[in-house]
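Q: I'm writing up a methods section and want to include an example of the input and output format. Could you take the sequence below and give the corresponding predicted structure tokens, formatted cleanly so I can copy it straight into the document?
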Amino acid sequence: MTNTLKLGRVGLLLLVCTSVAAGFLWLPPVPMFVSPALARIAVFHIPCSLVGSVATAVGVWYAVCYLKNRRLEDDIKSSVSLGLALLLWTLTTVTGAIFANAEWGAYWSWDIKQISIVMLLLIYCAYFALRTAIDDGRKRATVSAVYTLFALVSVPFLTLILPNSTPNTLHPKNVVFGGEYWLVLTAFSVSLTLIYVWAFRVHVALETVQLRLSRLARAASQTRVPAKAVVVEGRL
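A: Here is the clean output for your methods example:
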């Protein structure tokens, strides 16, 4: 491990710790909320949604790359990124539910934005259920890539169009945050993006090694079969 890589990881850890500490300890309450202190959760809730959108876009990009080049490595990158996107969308839902309970008195209020995010979660849960149902690697990659392209239509609809299509939402409108909120929100967005990149690279590396090992095992089994056939034929 190079010194640059070590310094990068230490810097990322410091950035994450500083962002989280600032979010909980430094930011002032916002009086317009029922629970003014809980407005701080916005600096975690919004970045989860933003980075989740980025991870979804990366997954779609590699799905297109797979359909173009038919490389299983692209399928791995697509599925890993969409898995991280699903995690980030889940964190978005959880942080939103915590805010909803404090502001509206219930974790679930059938708000249009809550319904939209849950629909998005179900779409990508179905993606992974579909992958587990197909054993053949090539077929699984192709079907998953096609599903990803169809699911792409739902992302802007469920994150932008549908939630903003009606004024009948419990979500706060015209909220004005101070400069310190935007500073912490930006810092946490950057740190969360870097965490996503790190996790993406690690998982892709592990999945790629597993793919190569399975290819080697398959090649070894194919080379052993003719040898056995020759021995049997010699005995005959």
